[in-house]
Amino acid sequence: MNVYDSARMADILSPLGYSMTAEPEGADMAILNTCHIREKASEKTFSELGRLRNMRKSKQASDEGDMIIAVAGCVAQAEGKEIMKRAPYVDMVFGPQSYHKLPEMLAEATRGAGQILDTDFPVEPKFDSLPDEAIDTNLSAFLTVQEGCDKFCAFCVVPYTRGAEFSRSVDSILSEAKRMIAGGTREITLLGQNVNAYHGEGPDGRTYSLAELIQELAALDGLWRLRYTTSHPLEMTEDLCRVHRDVDILMPYLHLPVQAGSDRILEAMNRRHTADEYRRIIDKLRGYRPDLALSGDFIVGFPGETDAEFEDTMQLVRDVSYAQAYSFKYSPRPGTPAAALEGQMIEEKIKSERLAALQALLNEQQLAFNKSFEGREVPVLLEREGKREGQLIGRSPYMQSVFVQSPTHRIGRTATVIVEEGNANSLRGKLKPGDIASAA
Ligand code: 5AD
Ligand code: SF4
User: What is the pLDDT of residues 84-136, one digit of tens each?
Assistant: First the structure.
């Protein structure tokens, strides 16, 4: 979502004469869009700010003018005051819910009003004040439909930094999607911290579910592929499971984090479901869409996690079998309930061992998944040129990166690829002779 937000900030600034640069060096303004989800991500803010400060100094020294430095995103939201104190050279600090006010903030900052801090959660949603003209028209692009989270998992900062759940109206999403398609987008990934909790106002005043929104989007001409991320198991409603069977442009890949496999840990995490309930959701989804590829997020070493409880996570992974996954060591986040479980913190060494064991299993599953494609034909949306001469890179319906030798003019089309090799992180294949479909 930070990628999407950064693109929206660029849209907002473009009428003011700003355009995106490839590198921060020499820029008139640098916006650091930050992530607060884990300590590691969050720490990067200050080291990156140090780099930007040096760039600003060398720009000033070479008499090429000044560089405005801004910090956006969730670290700004959570630690705005701290940033202003530790980095007094920062001009603007604003959270994810106030970037639509960038022009005002910028005007103030350039007027010499001192450091600007805006971490409000405004009543009027920012989406109403984002410009219409410029939108992401990449072949494959993101579209935020929902933001924020009311789930309050015990380890997570999102409900505090992104705020309460908010769903955009169906009309505003459809018109953004239409503009994207008109600009050349063929694949849209619907975004939300809790995307399947979507409940937006429909054109008839009724509240639409994510399943209904997906059906509306699937009816748009020119859209070939749809995806959505990230979902919570509790919101995998019957109608949403069913669209995986009924909507052919909905790709057979789902990121459905479970975090842990032990019921006691799931409860302590406030996930509000058991490991078996998760297994049953997966069974139901696979009933509707047998080839559905699954992805997940896992946390090892949550406070108090025993060896046996970690083993429950391993067992769950064996039972589900993932095509892809992200896994993390638990990292205490300021202000979250789990961070207060002081006496129960797990030693770093144990966390590392558990993470290594889990990742070995997940990597094995991912490789086996990719290998199972050898000899098969897959439709690949060709997105860009690869590093090697004559090579294009695209994605399979299952989110795998696919490398294929192909003429460049085929970028933007869906090609049938015969997979020759399934590797740890990608597939490699050749174009099926004579077959280049124009739609997915
Ligand atoms: N420590 C480790 N991982 C975390 N995540 C969220 N908060 C934490 C934390 N405090 C992980 C979860 C979530 C993903 C986006 O980041 O697995 O699904
Ligand atoms: Fe964080 Fe996701 Fe839990 Fe919300 S549902 S609190 S975003 S982990």
Answer: 999 999 999 999 998 889 999 999 988 877 888 888 887 666 777 777 655 66
* Choice from 153, 255, 278 to test ligand 2 binding pocket (greatest atom count within 8 A of CB): 153
- CATH class, 285-370 region: alpha beta
Regarding pTM above 0.90, the answer is yes
3-state secondary structure of 42: helix
Which residues does 280 contact at the CB level (< 8 Å), separation at least 6? Answer: none
Cα(345)–Cα(347) distance, rounded to whole angstroms? 7
Right CATH number for 137-251 from 3.30.200.20, 3.40.630.30, 3.30.750.210, 2.60.40.10? 3.30.750.210
Ligand 1 contact via 38 beta carbon (within 6 Å): yes
Q: Residues with beta carbon inside 6 Å of ligand 2?
A: 149, 151-153, 156, 158-159, 193-194, 232
**Structural contact between residues 289 and 328, judged by C-beta atoms closer than 8 angstroms:** no
CATH 3.40.50.12160 describes domain 2-118: yes
